[in-house]
Amino acid sequence: MTTIEAPEKVTTNHPKTKRLSPLLYVVPAAILILALTYTLPPFRNYQLATVGAYLCVTAGLTILTGLNGQLSLGHGALMATGAYTLALMQNRFNVLALGILAAVLVTTVAGGVIGLAAARLRGPYLAGLTLAVAVVVPSIASTFDETFNSDQGLTVALEPPPDAVTVEQWQAWVCWAGALVTVLVLAYLARGRFGRDMKAVRDDETAAKLAGIGVARTQVLAFVVSAACAGLAGALFAVLAQSVSPGAFPLTLSLFLVMAVVIGGLGRLSGALIGAVLLVALPEIAHSIAEDAGSQRLEGNLALTFFGVVLVAVMLAAPGGLASLRWKRNKQKGRT
Amino acid sequence: MDRFLYLTFDGLSRGAVYAAFALALVLIWRAARIVNFAQGAMAVATAYAGYSVTNATGSYWLGFIVAIVGGLVLGALVERVVMRFVDHSSPLNGVVVALGLVLIIQGVLGMIYGNEFRPAPAPFSRDAFQFGGVALLSRYDLFVFAAVGAVVVLLTLLFTRTPTGLRMRAAAFAPDVSRLLGVPVSGMLTLGWALAAAVGSLAGMLVVPTELGLHPNAMDLLFISAFTAAVLGGLDSPVGAVVGGLVVGLLLTYVSGYLGATVAPMAVLILLVVVLLGRPDGLFSRAKARTA
Fold it and tell me: PANTHER family from the entry (chain A) (predicted)?
């Protein structure tokens, strides 16, 4: 390789992540989760598992949008890809590790295809294309209904967990194993050369090109990595629900994911964790409010409204709530 | 052949609606360089308002007018209250805020009206006339053509023949110079949003009777189709939006007619990918700078 390193300046965005080794927070997190699964009641364990599954996809999305500047509204569709792959594999072979691996691989390939297109698109064009991908999911499920069984979807065959643990406990272990591995891999990627390349491309494509960074390659690679995370998350959701259907991956899911990473703070894995917790906690709060009010219509819609209000409020109150995009404001000061 | 003719006219009628919706997207894009991802949700909101009035009064036309006026108000409101304060240094911000609006509007609509499909009657019969034994056009199709045609003519007149239209073009093209020359730039921006939202509401009112009915998510696919139409036309060209809308409408109808309705969304996606990769500036892009 005859490429030249990117200038040091672009790498100083998050000095904190530079200093702290990811292992230093992933290992304690793993121990904490393990301890929690033995103390929490089954339903809380299930919610904990759901947070883990969400964390996989939000972590991948925050890297893509925050570090590389590509906004994807299609991650719900990528999750559906992973979930359906897992369901088909489980129903044929019933080996969970194999199913998850296949789900990640298939989604990676799908992400590569979208990423190739995405690398040539900017801003609203990319958002529109990925939005179209998200809208098309139910249509694919009903067109190829022999494979995907249309709106009913598929059930997922699963081996029962070992005798000593409950189903929910086991689910939490599986999901958090996936989540922590994802976070670990992404943290190392973001710290290393690939992370620098992504930020350089996001900040100034021309400058990145001059520094010898392959702009298109970096963008496609970022999308592929992020898609793999979404595939893993989708597979974990299929394990959690023990079924997959287009209704589980609506357009709102994709919007929720974007919301989660924006509110959590784009480009930060800690933000992805906040987002994942919000994705589980807010609907739960809305649900209990709706139940107290005894209104069916509030159910779900309250969460939707609340998410929307928070998202708009964050974007308006802190225009740099997208913390990692703050540099752009500084650069353009004095132009108006 | 009969079937082909029928599908062609049906496709043109559908395409006219997409054209109107794409026109709304293009209007905002030209005025503010934002793709309004909340356009679909805003159109649904005004359609709900319109049909509420229709149900209460029994008059379709009163509801129709309420929906259009509601579009004007909602568009102005969204610009004045939200979009104005968005930091536009990154194009992502506008998109993200618009998505937040989508969530809010869909959530509020769901809370008020519930998440089931509500029947939405058409003002005219949708039974097609027979021309020499072939069913071609219904009264409703004629109404759609007339309404969209009127909008296109009115917008053309507004932008090319009136001082207000000239000011709007100036404000979008060179905001600073226009301000120096006394053009109320921010007012023109609000007007642009209001007009675009009203056109979007019209498209929403026109499309609802032809679909399953009113639903908070009813316009998701319409938005994608219209976005594809607008991109096909170059996102900057009103003429392109109209042509793009007709092309997408025809394509969707042929695909639904010959391959099945479930394949249609995929056809839109494929068309969008082909256009974005093959001709990202649209069919009507020109080398010269924008003319308005």
Answer: HIGH-AFFINITY BRANCHED-CHAIN AMINO ACID TRANSPORT SYSTEM PERMEASE, HIGH-AFFINITY BRANCHED-CHAIN AMINO ACID TRANSPORT SYSTEM PERMEASE PROTEIN LIVM
